[in-house]
Amino acid sequence: MQLTLTGEYAIRAMIYLAGSADGSSFKISDVSSANEIPEKFLRKIISQLSSTGLIISQRGIGGGIKLGRPAESITPLEIIEAVEGDMALNKCLIDKDFCSNQRWCTVHTLWCEAQAKLKEILASKSIALLAKESEERKKKVLR
Q: Considering only CA atoms, which of 45, 100, 54, 101 is closest in space to residue 76?
């Protein structure tokens, strides 16, 4: 399985929003340009994130987008699943009828273990932590 640009861009946008400690709203165009995400594509992603409550989107004067929950409570796994759906490393993990050998297949067991570890890693950090780490790395690079 490969993470698509949708998942990558969603995580980048959420980390950007998490970088604002005061919960400020941002224009989609600003998030787009700061993260090198095509604005039209980002608008579709924002819609998906908004429908899951990860982002609050407000129209009109003074509107914009902001996190729907504290950044400390949002993980990359949640973001990916909001825009990509449930993760699966192999079709046999999605569709039980795909393979009749899964009761004894060691490869199936391997896929299950690998998927569990991947989800564990993606759920182990908050976007607040990732935003903080990102700022620290930027400071080191720009010195």
A: 54
In angstroms, how far is CA 132 from the centroid of its own chain? 16
Distances (CA, A) of 13 to 28, 38, 54, 94: 9, 11, 11, 28
The CATH fold of domain 5-86+126-141 = Arc Repressor Mutant, subunit A (1.10.10)
What is the distance in angstroms between the CA of the first residue and the CA of the last residue of the chain?
37
Among 81, 74, 57, CA closest to 130: 74
* pLDDT tens digits for range 77-111: 999 999 998 877 666 666 666 666 656 677 777 88
Residue 16 scores a pLDDT above 70? yes
CA nearest to 6, candidates 47, 34, 53: 47
The residue extents of the domains of the chain are: 5-86+126-141
pTM for this predicted structure: 0.85
3-state secondary structure of 65: strand
> Measured on CA atoms in the order 122, 11, 26, 141, is the torsion positive or negative?
positive
> What pLDDT does 93 receive?
64
